[in-house]
Write a structure and sequence with these properties.
Blueprint lengths: L2 H6 L17 H26 L3 H5 L10 H28 L7 H11 L9 H13 L4 H28 L3 H4 L2 H16 L1 H14 L14 H26 L6 H17 L9 H14 L1 H39 L1
Length: 336
């Protein structure tokens, strides 16, 4: 199913933006999921094996000793939640920049966070499709909703790439030797987003990769790409700060210039592994690889697991509340 099909499909499909398709062979889908999980486990094992993290080492960890500073932990949760809110507001701004209506801040955040539940389903299209369908309920034209959803994914990844670059530049010597190559990649990413001629071409490629038709007549202005990139870079700076507060809450070592951007870098690397739902396992493996040189392999492994619980909990609780709001709103519309 493409994003365009999700936007143009029956209204009842919008009630479950993150759900699996209703058609197709169940046996085939189960086999595909099994292959995805097997590949995810294999890639995760390979990454952890490279950094020397074993199950025996993790099983010997005394989790009772991992007592956080509750003040710092609470601050990290607040900062992370604010990051999610900021992401929703940026997406709402993108809708307006592309010619759509001005969404109320609460509506923009609600749509964005509910659609984010699609990241926990194998296949990266579900989040984009859900965002487009839910936006249409607010009067956003299908073309604008699709463009904002797909372009937002690309620019958010670009912003995370810019922030994640710090993990290489300020990291230990084994990572710093990759600085020239990563710097070239960051410059390329910025150019593809911010230079109008390049951004139009890269948009066509990105829409093709997501199996979506580039909407006719919907095109960002010259300064839009640069503004979106700046906003998402600041947004990822907030996510990185939240992660550093989480690390400090457990008293772990590491410069904020290394630890914070590692969170963004691991996100990008995990997202690139398309078969891993929400980057589960793979993102943690990359996070361990980035943080092991500054805090040790085992502490980095435990932290990676805690970070997954932290991001999931802070995201799912408000998203579930917003989902209830979406369902209640749909019910009122259907009744009325």
């Amino acid at each position: 199913m493409t994003v365009a099909e999700a936007v143009g499909g029956p209204e009842e499909g919008a009630a479950s933006p993150a759900g699996p398709p209703s058609s197709g062979r169940p046996g085939r889908r189960l086999l595909l999921r099994a292959v995805q999980l097997a590949l995810t486990a294999l890639v995760t094992w390979w990454i952890l094996d490279r950094v020397g993290l074993t199950l025996d080492a993790l099983s010997g960890v005394d989790l009772a000793a991992w007592r956080p500073s509750w003040t710092l932990l609470l601050l990290s949760c607040v900062a992370l939640a604010l990051g999610y809110v900021a992401s929703g507001l940026i997406w709402g701004r993108m809708v307006r920049d592309l010619g759509g209506p001005r969404l109320a801040p609460l509506d923009a955040v609600s749509v964005y966070m509910v659609a984010n539940l699609g990241r926990y389903v194998p296949g990266k299209l579900w989040q984009i499709a859900g965002l487009a369908v839910l936006a249409r309920r607010r009067g956003v034209p299908a073309a604008v909703a699709t463009a904002a959803a797909v372009a937002g994914q690309a620019v958010a990844l670009a912003g995370a790439t810019v922030v994640g670059f710090g993990a290489i530049v300020a990291g230990p010597p084994p990572l710093r030797r990759f600085t020239p190559w990563v710097a070239a990649g960051v410059v390329l990413v910025v150019a593809l987003v911010a230079v109008p001629a390049l951004s139009r071409r890269s948009a066509r490629v990105w829409f093709r990769l997501t199996r979506t038709d580039l909407p006719e007549g919907v095109e960002p202005g010259g300064a839009d790409g640069l503004r979106w990139l700046a906003l998402y870079t600041l947004n990822w700076g907030l996510y990185a700060l939240a992660f550093w507060l989480l690390v400090r809450s457990f008293g772990l070592p590491g410069s904020p210039l290394v630890v914070a951007p590692a969170f963004a870098a691991a996100y990008v690397l995990g997202y690139a592994v398309l078969f891993a739902p929400a980057g589960i396992g793979v993102r943690e493996g990359f996070l361990v690889a980035l943080l092991a040189p500054v805090m040790g392999t085992v502490p980095a492994g435990v932290l990676a697991g805690l970070a997954r619980l932290w991001t999931t909990g802070v995201e799912l609780l408000p998203a579930a509340a917003f989902w209830g709001r979406e369902l209640a709103g749909k019910g009122r519309t259907d009744d009325g």
